[in-house]
Design a protein that fits this description.
single chain; about 210 residues; alpha/beta; about 45% helix
């Protein structure tokens, strides 16, 4: 293994949540008078922390989202997760191999701690991620594309940034990993490869990842 730590993004990499959350986000923004298609949501918000949604709507319209926006959105997402969420195909095999080989890994997500835990509990991935392996944008001042979250995760796990590899599926996440001085593998199952071009490696099947990391 050429890395001392594998850092996974969560949404779209560990849990297949992006179609669910972006469908609901587009519908909620449209409901609030900010017409947004599913494709718009994927393009503009995939991989970002909640504050980016607020910032972009304010920048584009001059209007602030309701104070309870985050709470309402998360309630809708969590309810949908309970009904629909599944792990990304092949990711359990990757985690099994990392654990068997004794390779440290963790998750560093733009999502809240509550969102991460609901997703992991629903999909059964909670068995792989103890408390000390979970990091959220809530833990740092700035979310992706800033490098803060990945640097925080590496520090807490006791690994130098240059010895880490990040697995990401969003341009914002790839940008953050590069800024952190880490290698990054871009997962192109949902995101066009051209949008993840800054990643050192690109792959479309999660089952390929374990071999790529060796």
């Amino acid at each position: 293994m050429r890395y001392d730590l594998v850092i996974f993004d969560n949404d779209g990499v560990l849990v297949d949540s992006e179609p669910i959350s972006n469908r609901l986000l587009a519908a909620y923004l449209t409901e609030l008078g900010h017409p947004t298609s599913y494709e718009d949501s994927i393009r503009d918000y995939m991989g970002s922390a909640m504050h980016r949604i607020h910032d972009l709507i304010l920048e584009r319209t001059g209007q602030r989202l309701p104070e309870d926006f985050d709470d309402v959105f998360h309630a809708r997402v969590f309810a949908a997760f309970e009904r629909e969420l599944r792990p990304v195909t092949g990711v359990t095999g990757v985690l099994e191999k990392l654990a068997a080989d004794g390779v440290p890994y963790c998750v560093a997500s733009s999502g809240s701690h509550a969102r991460i835990r609901v997703g992991h509990r629903t999909t059964g991935l909670d068995r792989w991620f103890a408390e000390q392996r979970i990091f959220s944008s809530e833990d740092v001042g700035r979310g992706k594309p800033a490098p803060d979250l990945f640097l925080h995760a590496a520090e807490r796990m006791g690994v130098a940034p240059e010895r880490c590899v990040v697995v990401e599926d969003s341009p914002l996440g790839v940008q953050a990993a590069v800024a952190a001085g880490m290698d990054v593998y871009g997962f192109t199952a949902m995101t066009p490869a051209a949008r993840l071009a800054s990643a050192g490696e690109l792959f479309s099947d999660m089952g390929e990842l374990a071999d790529l990391l060796i």
